[in-house]
Write a structure and sequence with these properties.
The complex is a heterodimer of chains A (about 150) and B (about 700). Chain A contains five helices and five strands; from the N terminus they run E-E-H-E-E-E-H-H-H-H. Chain A has about 150 residues and is α+β, with helices and mostly antiparallel strands. In chain A, helix 2 packs across helix 3 and helix 3 packs across helix 4. With about 700 residues, chain B is an alpha+beta fold. Chain B folds into three domains: about 200 residues, Aldehyde Oxidoreductase, domain 4 (2-Layer Sandwich), CATH 3.30.365.10; about 150 residues, Aldehyde oxidase/xanthine dehydrogenase, molybdopterin binding domain (Aldehyde Oxidoreductase, domain 4, 2-Layer Sandwich); about 300 residues, Aldehyde oxidase/xanthine dehydrogenase, molybdopterin binding domain (Aldehyde Oxidoreductase, domain 4, 2-Layer Sandwich), CATH 3.30.365.10. Helices cover about 30% and strands about 25% of the residues of chain B. A seven-stranded mixed beta sheet of chain B has the order 10-11-8-18-15-16-17. In chain B, strand 15 and strand 16 form a beta hairpin. Classes of the chains: A alpha+beta (about 150), B alpha+beta (about 700). At the A-B interface, helix 1, helix 2, helix 3, helix 4 and helix 5 of A face helix 8 and helix 18 of B. One FE2/S2 (inorganic) cluster sits at the interface of chains A and B.
């Protein structure tokens, strides 16, 4: 049994220690907001926070996060950065198919947590590992700036 | 606002008027497509199908039932707003429900329940408005009767009927009476000047669930007793299994079953990770079959060679053998491309005794129901298809491979099975935009006026691969030549030919289909001809479009908005391209700077769009932005190649795609129009690539005639 803190609650996992966090979240715990896109840390769909850092859950074993704080998209409406981002995402009507958006918001939340006023280069750097096949990039950029503005207002 | 509940046909009927006293509007869709007309003609009296796509509860809640698949294009929003507009619904009380498979939900432009071809608004603009208007008339009639006044003294607004002397009733209060009235078959539609919802940029109804992880995609489906399957797929199309050693796979704790089907071998487990480990432990030997020596070089040679000989004639005007003063010739080539939807292909199937159920992110629930029925030997009405949200579609999810495999696995395993493709399985799934080659020859007179144009297209035939035809009418595959064969440029002498070449990789629909490569070809070549004629690229195009006001209109608008001809910063260059497809007209101007590495940096794209009457301008902006990103991604990076019959790419590490730091600024300008609505999911794509290619020519003097750049 591996135990970790998921969105502030302690959870026990019976999956084998080599199981990626992504599949433990989705298949064992039923947290399906975190998405599978590539399995090789190349798309960002599976981005979660581990001790506050954006992390690719598809290549992070549960063994590696034992005892750590894991935060997923499901907890984003319970912190002020997550709320600001979700509101900005809705105002800017960012999602198209929506599949990549959990990962986008998780990466954006980590960015705003360490840099409350990101410029374009900061956004590029923080977000360039999150693919969006629907091409919502310009909306994502606008929504991050919008959220940053509401947070500093 | 909630969407995407997995309503079954049974629940749907149960929840209808008889059980709840709610108002359910049955309606008929005019069958406008050639296919449907043919079908209707073949079955006497089948010209209209009974239909149900609107329900109003006694609480006043309006539920719009949508048979089209939401894959990011905003169709749920589009359909809901068409109905709500004419119903004069209170927008806050409108929710959307995904329809089961039923003839009633056939796409009128396809004659089957399927989403694609940028048909959603074109096919449903009037039928959905009529559905809302019919309901509104019935509610008004019910109120008028109750109040003993004429219907003409009542009006509607935000889900209420208002009568004389301050009388007013919510729709919910009127449904019981209204549902006893006959459904008007020809209700009066609003004057577009009175629209409150259409043409405005309301927030999409699916957005809230897509920012908190709650939106239900196919990969998220959960049913009791579910097993996850991961497969070994054939490495080469048509390869046959010689032997399977599953001892190591079965030894992995948690692996439940190993199932062999014609498409490959599946390992079933409680979750993906164990199934994947099991899959990777399988030892499967294959006989590659006749395609085991296929290579991209070989395919390229086949296509290029085919353009050196005359082909079937797709279009012939005047005489292209007339004498000319100057000849321009070029050969263009486009590669195979993957769709690479962010959600890998998946499907949950549960084949039980006497019935089957499928949960799938599918663009073709109608045809897929038929396929499952065939595979299981069940009548179609015993097969329920639940359409989930689609994590991207782009044509890929019209293909049945993931439906077929999951159905066969569930049937063999006797359990509900969610088949999930790994990204590598998805990338190597054998459904691609086909490679294509076009050889052009153009002739100019001594003053540089265009005299003749010949295009020879060589490509596989999509209509045959998709099963739409078994033979090509006059030897022409429409998808292979679209964008060239139907060009609007007025060359006095014009000939388009087609050679069908089948290297063995089945071609498939990919966002904007044949236009995706053919508009690149023709628009880059037209630029070459303009340069040879010593003419400005915009002026040269205009001169060939004097009888095409809508296409010339978008060209002029894009040129005006970008400031065509105005000075640019040092090192930045412009290119232009136009297209008409799916009933819409688009022009794009790209501004490109060449990087030190020789790679172009696309800084800005200005697009002008004429898609007729608009339903939601914000959705149009977004579809065009997205289509530009999809097109640019392909132009800059994407290529599927083959060696020894195998796909060489595997995942996003070796099939790179456009990222946020390479996304240009995009400006979209919509031409105000009262014409019938055109499509918008695809028309924004084709002109992006040639606009960039032509800007690269302006920057470097070099023509890019193969992709990626
Ligand atoms: S699924 Fe983890 S980065 Fe793509
Ligand atoms: S919204 Fe579809 S992949 Fe990003």
């Amino acid at each position: 049994m591996i135990s970790l803190s998921l969105n502030g609650k302690t959870v026990q996992l019976s999956a084998t220690p080599d199981t990626p966090l992504l599949w433990a979240l989705r298949d064992e715990l039923g947290y399906t907001g975190t998405k599978f896109g590539c399995g090789i840390a190349a798309c960002g769909s599976c981005t979660v926070h581990v001790d506050g850092k954006p992390t690719r859950a598809c290549v992070t074993t549960i063994e590696a996060v034992a005892g750590k704080q894991v935060t997923t998209i499901e907890a984003m409406d319970s912190n002020h950065i997550g709320q600001a981002l979700q509101a900005a995402w809705i105002r800017n009507d960012v999602p198209q198919c929506g599949y990549c958006q959990s990962g986008q918001i998780m990466s954006a939340a980590a960015l705003l947590a360490r840099n409350p006023k990101p410029n374009d280069a900061d956004i590029d750097e923080a977000m360039r590992r999150n693919l969006c096949r629907c091409g919502t990039y310009n909306r994502i950029r606008a929504a991050i700036k919008d959220a940053a503005a509401t947070l500093s207002a | 606002m909630s969407t995407n509940s997995y309503t079954t046909r049974r629940d749907f009927l149960k929840g209808s008027a008889a059980a709840t006293g709610a108002l359910v509007i049955g309606f008929t869709l005019p069958m406008t497509s050639r296919f449907a007309q043919a079908a209707a003609a073949a079955t006497p009296g089948a010209g209209f199908a009974p239909n149900a796509f609107l329900r109003i509860a006694a609480s006043g809640q309006v539920t719009v039932i949508c048979g089209l698949s939401e894959m990011g294009q905003g169709v749920h929003m589009g359909i809901a707003s068409l109905v709500a507009e004419e119903l004069d619904a209170d927008w806050k009380s409108v929710q959307l429900e995904q329809a089961p498979v039923d003839k009633a939900y056939n796409n009128p432009l396809f004659g089957m329940q399927a989403t694609g071809g940028s048909t959603a608004i074109r096919g449903h603009y009037e039928p959905m408005r009529k559905a809302g208007a019919a309901a509104r008339e019935m509610l008004v009639a019910a109120a008028a009767t109750q109040w003993g006044v004429g219907a003409d003294r009542c009006r509607t607004q935000d889900g209420r009927v208002m009568g004389p002397d301050g009388k007013s009733a919510g729709y919910g209060e009127l449904v019981a009476a209204a549902s006893k009235l006959p459904v008007p078959q020809n209700p009066t539609l609003k004057d577009p000047g009175d629209f409150r919802i259409l043409g405005k940029g309301l927030t999409r109804i699916d957005t809230p669930s897509k920012v908190n992880g709650s939106a239900g995609f196919g990969i998220d489906v959960k049913v009791p007793g579910l097993l996850t399957a991961v497969m070994v797929h054939a490495p080469v199309p048509g390869a046959k299994i010689v032997s399977v050693d599953d001892a190591a796979a079965k030894a992995i704790p948690g692996v439940k079953q190993v199932v062999q089907i014609p498409q490959g071998v599946a390992v079933l487990a409680d979750g993906y990770w164990t199934a994947l480990k099991g899959r990777d432990a399988l030892v499967v030997k294959w006989d590659d079959g006749p395609l085991g020596s296929l290579s991209s070089e070989g395919i390229s040679k086949l296509l290029i060679d085919a353009t050196t000989k005359p082909g079937a004639v797709a279009r012939n005007e005047g005489d292209v053998s007339v004498a000319v003063a100057k000849t321009i010739e070029a050969v263009y080539e486009a590669p195979y491309l993957a769709h690479a939807c962010m959600e890998p292909m998946n499907c949950t199937a549960w084949v039980r005794a006497g019935e089957a159920e499928v949960w799938a992110p599918t663009q073709g629930p109608g045809p897929h129901q038929g396929i499952v029925a065939q595979l299981t030997g069940l009548p179609p009405e015993k097969v329920q298809v639940h359409t989930t949200y689609l994590g991207g579609g782009f044509g890929r999810r019209f293909a049945p491979d993931f439906i077929i495999a999951s159905t066969l696995i569930s049937k063999a395993a006797g359990a509900p099975v969610k088949l999930v493709y790994t990204r590598e399985d998805d990338m190597r799934g054998w459904y691609y935009r086909p490679a294509s080659v076009t050889r052009f020859t153009a002739g100019l007179d001594k003053d540089g006026n265009p005299v003749s144009l010949t295009a020879r297209v060589a490509s596989p035939a999509l209509s045959i691969a998709a099963g739409f035809a078994t033979e090509l009418p006059k030897g022409i595959d429409e998808a292979a030549v679209e964008g060239i064969g139907d060009m609007l440029y007025a060359f006095p002498n014009l000939r388009v030919e087609y050679a069908r070449v089948e290297p063995g990789i089945p071609p498939w629909f990919w966002r904007s289909v044949g236009h995706s490569q053919n508009v690149y070809f023709i628009e880059a070549f037209i630029d070459e001809v303009a340069a040879a004629a010593g003419k400005d690229p915009v002026e040269f195009r205009r001169s060939l479009l004097s009888k095409q006001p809508r296409l010339r209109g978008v060209l002029d608008l894009a040129a005006q908005k970008v400031g065509w001809g105005s000075p640019l910063p040092q090192g930045v260059h412009r290119g232009v391209a136009i297209t008409t497809c799916f009933g819409s007209f688009v022009a794009q101007v790209a501004e490109v700077a060449m990087g030190a590495n020789g790679k172009p940096r696309v800084q800005r794209i200005v697009a002008a769009v004429d898609c007729g009457r608009t339903v939601n301008p914000d959705v149009i902006h977004r579809q065009v932005e997205g289509a530009i990103a999809y097109g640019l991604s392909a132009a800059m990076y994407e290529k599927i190649t083959f060696k020894n019959g195998r796909v060489e790419q595997s995942n996003f590490n070796d099939y790179p795609m456009l990222r946020i730091d390479e996304m240009p600024k995009v400006e979209v300008h919509i031409v105000p129009s009262t014409e019938a609505p055109g499509g918008i999911g695809e028309p924004g794509l084709p002109a992006a690539t040639p606009a960039v290619i032509n800007a690269i020519f302006a920057a470097t003097g070099k023509r890019v005639r193969t992709l990626p750049i």
